[in-house]
Each structure stands twice: as C-alpha cells, then as structure tokens.
Design a protein that fits this description.
It is a single chain. The chain has 320 residues and is mainly alpha-helical. Helices cover 55% and strands 7% of the residues. The chain folds into two domains: 210 residues, 3-Layer(aba) Sandwich (Rossmann fold), CATH 3.40.50.620; 72 residues, Tyrosyl-Transfer RNA Synthetase. The structure holds adenosine-5'-diphosphate and tryptophan. The site of adenosine-5'-diphosphate (ADP) has 14 residues, from helix 1.
Length: 320
C-alpha cells in the first residue's frame, strides 16, 4: 500500500504530537510503501523568516529521523526538492473550483488566528492535492483537522479523471480512532497553543520541573490516590504496557507513595522513552550534511516517480 504523509515543521514537537501522530505513522512504515516529506512549501504560507524556514526544515527532518523514520524503509525528502509538484499544483488549480477552496475550514481558522490571507494560504489544499496525487498515493494518514484537505484532493482527482480518464489514484484518508487525546500539564488537551505541553526533547532538569507542575488533587500523603482522575497517571500510562499500568494502579492504591513519587516516575518514563532518539538527534545535529544527503536520496527516488507521472499528466491536458 502506498502511504503518503507530509509533515509541516511547526516548531518543537510535544508528547501529544508523538503519541497522537508520529508514533502511529512510524508504525506504518514497516508494512507499507511509505512516502514522507517535509512540507516546506506549505510552511512558507505562514512563515516568512528565511532563516527560520531553512532551520525548521532541517530540524523537522532531524526530529523524524531521530524518532525512528528509517530512510531505508521509507522514501523521505524535502517537498521543495521535487519541483514537479509545483507544476502539478498549477495544472490542478485549473481543475479546482474556487468554491471548493472557499469552504476550507482550515483556511478560515488560520485567517481568524491572524495569519495573512495570502493566495498561497488560500490554495494550500491544491498543493496538498498535488503532493498526494503526484505519487499515486492510496492512503493518507491524517489528524481530524486534515480530513477535509484529503477530501478535496479526492474531489479534484475525480473531476480530472472524469475529463481525462483514469490518470489519478483516488486517495483515502486514514484517521486512527484508537489514538487518545493526550492531556497537557493542566489536564486540558496538550497543545503548543495552550502552553501546557511537554516537549519531546527537553533537558532533564527542566523536564522534571515541568512534570512537577502537572496538576493533581490535594489528597495528602498516606491516603490512597485516585489513578482514574489523575493527569500524572494519564500521561505515565502512555508509556506503559498493560501489566505495568496495573502495577502503577496498585502503587496509587497502596498509600505508600504521594504525587511527588509519581511525578519523578513520569519524568523517568519520558526521559527513557526518548533516550535513543536524543542520542540520534545529537548525532544528526552534528552531521547535518548527512541529513541533507538522506533528503537528496529520497528526493531522487520521489523524482523518478514524479517525472514519469508528469509526462502522462502533461499529455492528458495538452501541455507540450
Ligand atoms: P498543536 O495542537 O500542538 O498545535 P498540531 O495541531 O500541530 O498540534 O498537531 C500535529 C499532530 O499531532 C496532529 O495530527 C494532531 O492530531 C496530533 N496531536 C496534537 N496534540 C495532540 C494531543 N494532545 N493528543 C493527541 N494527538 C495530538
Ligand atoms: N497540511 C499538512 C499539515 O499541516 C501537511 C501536508 C502537506 C500534507 N501536504 C500533505 C499531509 C500531503 C498529508 C499529505 O499537517
């Protein structure tokens, strides 16, 4: 199955992103023909600082490589290294009714949040359709906020195929319903915009400080604690298998330990989970040429598919 995903680099990622999006995606790479790219053209719609955009692109690549993206299993590249996607974006634009784009909720949300209403932001879903359709992608794993964009890619592909024959594979979105919402340190949904998030890559001391801030009730030491309503438990359980969860529940009931102990335990779980990733990250940060090389190799693989596909598309629409 050809599975494709684009990753926009939007600053440092938190453990909600990890359990909600990154981990489920990486699990797909073992049994699928995985295509993953850093969506830096998309990032340009909201980021106008050239240094930051360059740094974020490499940083996103480093983050995904560190967390387990395997360039031998997955095709991994930077969107801007395969220029065909921009050509297809233009061609698809000619098959995209403006009414379709005007209905995009993500565009409206971004404008409401104060991001300048430029044309690239408006036509963002057409470039996303080009990303998906150029590589004959069958499945696109997304969060709920991106479903509408994949549906637009389908609409555009169907409209195009109706005129020119079966040129495009019609993609399907895949939303992982099993993924629970990870709570932040205040118990609300963890989100960078609520400043309640725990970043994946933190130094040990600030990490412990943040874990200490996770909101709990005020049950005193010596009384049994309620794990069901506890944010520390909810976060810790993400890192545990079933038997370890039961063990932790017993510790909550035992009256021997207080929240301070469980906050230390939570820090250890986070620290250990990302230990290997942190080492890989340090390696890639010191070897950024290696990261560029990995992205170029991926781009070469993606380009081969893109150039064959573009010939068919150009011929279909009449571009000589
Ligand atoms: P944020 O809310 O921090 O801005 P994004 O909207 O950039 O996060 O989300 C990127 C991905 O991470 C999406 O696929 C989203 O579903 C997932 N995600 C973000 N926060 C959480 C969370 N608290 N629990 C589970 N998944 C999350
Ligand atoms: N819009 C996606 C996001 O913000 C990133 C993206 C760009 C993408 N092109 C894509 C995702 C193609 C899936 C398929 O997260």
């Amino acid at each position: 199955m050809r599975v494709l995903n684009g990753l926009q680099s939007s600053g440092s990622l938190h453990i909600g992103n990890y359990f909600g999006a990154i981990k489920p995606m990486l699990e797909l790479q073992d049994s699928n023909d995985m295509f993953m790219f850093i969506a830096n053209y998309h990032a340009l719609t909201s980021l106008k600082d050239s240094k930051a955009l360059k740094a974020n692109t490499i940083d996103a690549a480093i983050t995904f490589l560190s967390l387990g993206l395997d360039p031998d299993k997955s095709t991994f590249w930077a969107q801007s290294d395969v220029k065909e996607v921009l050509e297809l974006y233009w061609i698809l634009s000619a098959y995209t009714p403006t009414g379709l784009l005007e209905r995009a909720t993500s565009y409206k949300d971004k404008v409401t949040k104060g991001i300048g209403a430029n044309h690239a932001l408006f036509s963002y879903p057409v470039l996303m359709a080009a990303d998906i359709l150029l590589y004959d992608s069958q499945v696109v794993p997304v969060g709920k906020d991106q479903i509408q964009h994949v549906e637009m890619a389908r609409d555009i592909a169907i409209k195009f195929n109706n005129e020119h024959g079966e040129i495009f594979v019609i993609p399907e979105h895949k939303v992982d319903e099993n993924v629970a919402t990870v709570p932040g340190i205040d118990g609300a949904k963890m989100s960078k915009s609520y400043s309640n998030d725990i970043k994946i890559f933190m130094d040990e001391k600030p990490l412990q400080k943040l874990c200490n801030k996770v909101v709990t009730d005020s049950t005193p030491m010596g009384e049994a604690l309620d794990w069901k309503s506890c944010n520390v438990y909810a976060l810790a359980s993400l890192f545990l298998n079933e038997s370890k969860r039961l063990e932790l529940q017993d510790r909550y009931k035992s009256t021997n330990e207080g929240y301070g102990h469980f906050k230390k335990y939570l820090k250890e779980l986070i620290w250990d989970e990302f230990f290997e990733a942190r080492e890989k990250r340090a390696y890639y940060l010191n070897n950024q040429d290696k990261v560029r090389e990995i992205l170029y190799t991926g781009a070469e693989k993606a380009s081969k598919i893109a150039s064959v596909k573009m010939e068919i598309i150009r011929d279909a629409v009449g571009i000589i």
